[in-house]
Design brief:
Strand order of the largest sheet: 1-2-3-4
Pfam family, one: NHL
Keywords: Repeat
Helix content: under 10%
CATH architecture: Beta Barrel
Number of helices: 0
Organism: Didymodactylos carnosus
Number of domains: 1
Shape: globular
Protein name: NHL repeat-containing protein
Strand content: 25-35%
C-alpha cells in the first residue's frame, strides 16, 4: 500500500509459488532501496531477488546456484539489506 491508498498492488512475485523469475518460494524479508527497487530474500529458492519499479519479473542478485555454503550459494536466506553503494548483505542460514 502507498500512504493514503486503500488498495495495494503486487510489486514482486504474485504468480504462485515457484522458481521462475516472476515467482517466489517462501519469501522471508523485503527491503526497498532509495530507487524504489524491492529486494526479497527468497528462502525456498536459496536466492535474493530484485524487482525494479514497474518490472514484471525479478533479477537474481545473490544465490540461485543451488542450496549450499559455497561463495555463490545460499542456504535459506532470511534477511537482506542494501547499502547506499548498492552492496547487498544477506543473512543466510
Amino acid at each position: 500500500y502507498r500512504r493514503g491508498e486503500s488498495q495495494g498492488i503486487v510489486v514482486a512475485g504474485g504468480n504462485g509459488s515457484g522458481n521462475r523469475l516472476d515467482q517466489l518460494s517462501n519469501p522471508q524479508y523485503v527491503f526497498v532501496d532509495r530507487d524504489h527497487s524491492v529486494y526479497v530474500s527468497d528462502w525456498g529458492n536459496h536466492r535474493v531477488m530484485k524487482w525494479v519499479e514497474g518490472a514484471k519479473q525479478g533479477i537474481v542478485v545473490a544465490g540461485d546456484q543451488g542450496q549450499g555454503h559455497g561463495l555463490t550459494q545460499l542456504s535459506h536466506p532470511w534477511g537482506v539489506v542494501v547499502d547506499q553503494l548498492g552492496t547487498v548483505y544477506v543473512a543466510d542460514a
